[in-house]
Write a structure and sequence with these properties.
The complex is a heterodimer of chains A (about 325) and B (about 725). With about 325 residues, chain A is mainly alpha-helical. Chain A has helices at about 1-30, 35-40, 50-60, 75, 80-85, 100-135, 140-155, 160-175, 190-220, 220-230, 235-245, 245-255, 265-270, 275-285, 290-320. Chain B has about 725 residues and is an alpha+beta fold. The chains are: A mainly alpha (about 325), B alpha+beta (about 725).
Chain lengths: ~325, ~725
């Protein structure tokens, strides 16, 4: 397995270089270093000299990808792309374009993101699996049909609707929870109730439908028929056999997103005033802060690759027949 | 899962004070003298040398004290002392250094000296940069890596200190404006005006790559010819020639004092890595100080215990006595102990929290406008019944800003000073119905502009004398937009009958440069297209992002565009310079985005900018506005109106569009606020029990069905 993991890690390097290059190209197609300087220096009374000075100070006065004037290897290394990218591979995110340490900000802002994402994932997982098993228990009945209609309706509704609807009903009309905000430490809990409820409800439609499909596929297999023939109760069959055998696809969906929980949610964090990494990224895009954008995209790519590797490893845990080679 | 959620809600019940569950603040603060507000965007800079945005000034102006400020109540806007003992009057000198009288011709003036005396006894806020050890040395000025272990924010330093404000602190800050590494946005302007500023900036540019402490030492040792410390409490600024607007700059945070100790403290190795920088933790002498800066969550201003004291103004406008705004006259300020600004990016939660009483004041977004404001029979904006019932107060004020539609005067079709192009621009000016624009797209929050100078700024004229005769006529005591027929006639005279170019036989097509980012923009752009279509002009919308838009304007490749300007100071020069030829965007990289150049206008501008307000200046301004109206480089657009709402427990929230340091005048009634919050936010519990009942109704039959199915026999 070690060799397999090592190989996957090595595969990750060209992927990360590619991700970095694409991010770089996309960013600089839209924003030139001059635009970035203007954004940071403000809109009024900005002089050409100030723009040049800002670019020089932040290392944006080099050519983007290829430096014709530099000798030898410098043609590649003395460029914005190389200078800004190479340290990322050592996880040195450096300073944002306005001078703040990105690594520190990430370490501070990942916790609020996790504070929402983890409960939403766990509660959502528990509810969706339970509900899916319930539907499967009553498959091909009105319970099944009615549930599917409900789930399709729920997954057709925009996530924004759940957020605004949740804020309106629970906070504005019933005055049960704060409409938005956040606090440090344990004081954060009362601000998490609404986003967690909204997150869980918003995920029921797609989540339950997905698990229902998995369970229905399993339930048609021979081992289930055998279990029933042995006289096992349907409940026992579902929870002990079907659920266990459906774990691989469930794990595929869950483990892969685990590392990405750090990255937060753009819309949820924005509407609920949660100072997580989702809002950090969106602010950086709006402020044309390339240093943060590239760091967050890089981090997202690393975490995604990590998630895929973890998924592969978890296969071996839940299914001894799987061997990583 | 549902029970889990209900459990969480029940937990909320036990944890919420004040009898309210949706309270976003600690219950212990319910009756504290704390002002609650919000911000939507993180301030980029809190270093007074760098900051130049309204959202940054909302904080900086409460913390730093430049020499002057704007009077809170008097209009037109008036400069009064803040840290200074009095408003300085410039002394004029000729090239030989001989003093000149005040009424001398501006051309004879070689330099103007501003001697600024500051009040003695002003002290800086408590800050670790001033802390000293037993030997009298600075406690935190020689920190090593080990000293910074466990230090992540300013409050992690145990000891703080203070010292008296001196003239040297102001002089040091002016030198900082010249430091190239600080990128002060007004460095270019000051280079033209403060004697020796450019030389200092050039000399300091050699230090671009030096380490931070070396730069600061150099800055402390540097001499700036035009800025001189006279004694402990006074300093002199020498301005090239005559520049009366310089006094206004002295009311901006750029000229606030900065103690060198703070610069040295923040420049130490390891501080930047910990994000402990001046741009994040300001050090001022003002009524409040920034005690928590977490702009991803909230920013907190607290009363500065070292504040030197100030009193609420005793003078106001005649109507102010009746309105009650002078009720606190002569009382010591600030009234508020603490101000908490929470990050609120979205309008919906911000608005609802205001309605719940958790913010003391609010602006009005377009979404909430109809809920808050209605227009009465006289066309005045009044509050809706719901707002009145809550005791909310509406305050409106015309902002010293302008949103205009500009023609690129370098363009061969819409630009230039040919009569043909001029008539075309005038025709479009008539066709573009800005009254409708304001009504549809600004909820009526604007005043149609008749020229470039907004109300409240010297030079603005009201009534018939103030209308733009090329677009309006005065009928029944009010301006009425000229008819479309007149516009079409102008088009015909310009050689575009029915929108067809007589020379080419083709329909006239004009490109409109637009920054369009959302679906709302489409309606606006369609509306603009229809205005041009009234004259048969085909308007081609060239939507792009703001970067490309600015690039087009800089390169002069656009034809028509919409832009705006927010005044730095309340002087007509700060608006008319937007039309000054030597300020053209393409040729001179200035702020004249239309690249308008009229020799007579420029000549009058050169004369007007040196003059004191008075009849002679008014006459010149009238002529300049007349020239601009004749040439019509802009559709004058509109002056936006600020609408703000305040709860009944907040007093002295008087709008002042030039002053940013108005927090100190505000007064709260926290007891009343706590009462009303409780009344407005009684938790409604029946939905929880109803939901619980519903769940039981669903679960019990489901369980029964499960059992029944399991016990049933196969067929």
């Amino acid at each position: 397995m070690t060799a397999y993991i090592l190989r996957r890690v090595l595969y990750a390097i060209p992927i990360l270089i590619g991700v970095n290059l694409i991010t770089f190209l996309l960013f600089f197609v839209v924003n030139s270093p001059d635009d970035m300087a203007r954004m940071h220096l403000g809109q009024k009374r900005v002089t050409t000299e100030a723009i040049q000075a800002w670019k020089a100070e932040h290392g944006y006065d080099r050519p983007l990808l290829y430096n014709e004037e530099a000798p030898g290897l410098g043609r590649v290394t003395d460029t914005i792309f190389f200078q800004k990218s190479v340290k990322l591979f050592a996880f040195q995110f450096g300073a944002s374009d306005d001078g703040r340490d990105i690594g520190y900000d990430i370490s501070q802002r990942m916790w609020p993101s996790l504070a929402i994402a983890v409960p939403v994932l766990l509660v959502g997982l528990a509810f969706n699996i339970s509900y899916a098993l319930f539907i499967v228990f009553f498959r091909a009945t009105y319970v099944d049909i009615g549930s599917v209609v409900l789930l399709v309706a729920m997954l057709s509704i925009s996530g924004l609707f759940y957020i605004i609807g949740g804020q309106f009903i629970l906070s504005k009309v019933f005055h049960l929870v704060p409409i938005s905000g956040y606090d440090q430490g344990l004081d954060a809990w009362k601000f998490l109730i609404l986003p967690v409820i909204v997150g869980v409800i918003g995920g029921i439609g797609s989540g339950t439908r997905w698990y229902r499909t998995l369970f229905l596929e399993e339930i048609a297999k021979d081992y289930v028929r055998t279990a029933r023939a042995k006289g096992l109760s349907e409940r026992f069959v579902l929870f002990r056999h079907v659920l266990r055998n459906a774990l691989i696809p469930i794990l595929t969906g869950v483990v892969v997103v685990l590392p990405l929980l750090f990255m937060g949610s753009l819309i949820t964090e924005s509407f609920f005033g949660i100072p997580g990494l989702g809002s950090y990224t969106i602010d950086a895009i709006n402020n044309q802060d390339f240093a943060i954008v590239r760091s967050m995209v890089f981090l997202g790519a690393v975490l995604y690759i990590l998630g895929l590797i973890l998924t592969d490893i978890s296969y071996t845990v839940v299914d001894p027949r799987v061997r990583l080679q | 899962m549902v029970w889990w959620l209900l459990g969480l809600l029940a937990l909320a019940l036990t944890g919420c004070g004040e009898g309210t569950w949706n309270h976003p603040y600690p219950s212990a603060d319910a009756t504290s003298n704390t002002y609650y507000s919000s911000f939507s965007e993180r301030p980029k800079h809190l270093d007074p040398a760098r900051s130049y945005s309204a959202n940054e000034y909302a904080f900086l102006a409460q913390i730093y004290e430049p020499p002057l400020q704007y009077h809170f109540l008097l209009r037109p806007y008036q400069l009064v002392p803040l840290a200074a003992a009095e408003v300085p009057r410039p002394a004029y000198f000729d090239a030989s250094g001989a003093p000149l009288p005040d009424d001398v011709s501006p051309q004879a003036i070689d330099r103007s000296d501003y001697v600024i005396r500051i009040q003695p006894g002003i002290r800086f806020q408590p800050h670790p940069a001033f802390a000293r050890d037993e030997a009298g040395d600075y406690r935190y000025h020689a920190l090593g890596p080990a000293d910074l272990d466990g230090i992540n924010q300013l409050s992690d330093f145990d000891q703080v200190g203070t010292r008296e404000l001196t003239a040297e602190d102001y002089v040091y800050q002016i030198r900082r404006l010249a430091a190239p590494w600080l990128h002060s946005p007004i460095s270019g302007v000051m280079r033209r005006h403060i004697r020796g500023f450019g030389e200092l900036a050039d000399a300091l540019s050699d230090l671009q790559s030096a380490d931070e402490l070396a730069r600061i030492q150099a800055l402390r040792a540097a001499s700036l010819q035009g800025v001189e410390v006279l004694d402990r409490y006074s300093f002199k600024i020498t301005v090239e020639g005559k520049y009366p607007q310089f006094s206004y700059w002295l009311a901006m945070p750029f000229f606030a004092p900065l103690p060198w100790e703070a610069d040295v403290f923040y420049a130490q190795p390891g501080m930047t890595e910990r994000n402990i920088v001046l741009d994040w933790y300001p050090v001022g002498t003002g009524p409040h100080m920034l005690s928590e800066n977490n702009p991803n969550l909230r920013m907190i201003l607290e009363r500065n215990p070292n504040f030197h004291g100030e009193r609420y103004p005793t003078r106001g406008m005649p109507q102010d006595a009746e309105s009650g705004i002078l009720a606190d006259a002569g009382k010591p300020i600030p009234f508020i102990d603490r101000a908490i600004y929470s990050l609120e990016k979205e309008n919906i939660p911000r608005w609802n929290k205001f309605l719940q009483g958790y913010y003391d004041s609010s602006g009005i977004s377009s979404d909430a406008f109809d809920q808050a404001v209605q227009i009465d029979a006289q066309g005045e904006a009044i509050l809706t019944d719901d707002m009145r019932e809550k005791g909310i107060e509406l305050l409106t004020a015309v902002q010293p800003s302008i949103f205009y539609m500009g023609f690129n005067m370098l363009d061969p079709v819409v630009g230039g000073d040919s009569q043909r192009a001029r008539l075309l621009r005038r025709a479009i000016s008539i066709a573009m119905d800005y009254e409708e624009f304001i009504s549809i797209f600004a909820n009526g929050r604007g005043l149609v502009a008749q020229g470039p100078i907004p109300p409240g700024i010297f030079g603005h004229r009201e009534g018939e004398a103030g209308i733009n005769p090329f677009v309006y006529e005065w009928r029944n005591g009010r301006p009425v937009r000229r008819s479309l027929d007149e516009a079409r006639t102008l088009m015909e005279q310009a050689g575009y009958p029915g929108g067809m170019d007589r020379e080419t036989g083709r329909a006239l097509s004009i490109n409109y440069e637009a920054v369009a980012t959302g679906p709302d923009d489409r309606a606006r752009l369609n509306w603009i297209r229809k205005q041009f279509a009234k004259l048969g002009i085909e308007l081609v919308i060239r939507s792009t992002d703001y970067n490309r838009f600015q690039e087009k304007i800089r390169n002069g490749t656009g034809q028509v565009f919409m832009w705006g300007w927010n005044a730095d100071y309340p002087d007509p020069e700060n608006f008319l310079f937007l039309l000054y030829g030597p300020n053209g965007k393409v040729e001179h990289q200035g702020e004249n985005a239309s690249n308008y150049a009229n020799p007579e206008f420029d000549r009058l501008f050169d004369a007007m900018k040196f003059m004191e307000d008075g009849p002679q200046r008014q006459a010149i301004l009238d002529r300049m506005v007349e020239i601009a109206r004749t040439d019509a480089p802009w559709l004058w657009g509109f002056f936006p109106k600020a609408f703000s709402l305040h709860h009944q427990w907040l007093h002295n929230a008087h709008p002042n569009e030039m002053a940013n340091n108005t927090l100190k005048y505000r007064r709260l009634d926290p007891g009343r606020r706590a009462e009303l919050r409780k009344e407005w936010n009684v938790p409604i519990l029946w939905p929880i029990w109803a939901l619980g009942g519903l769940i039981l109704l669903l679960v019990i039959p489901a369980l029964w069905m499960v059992r029944r199915r399991e016990r049933s026999t196969a067929l």
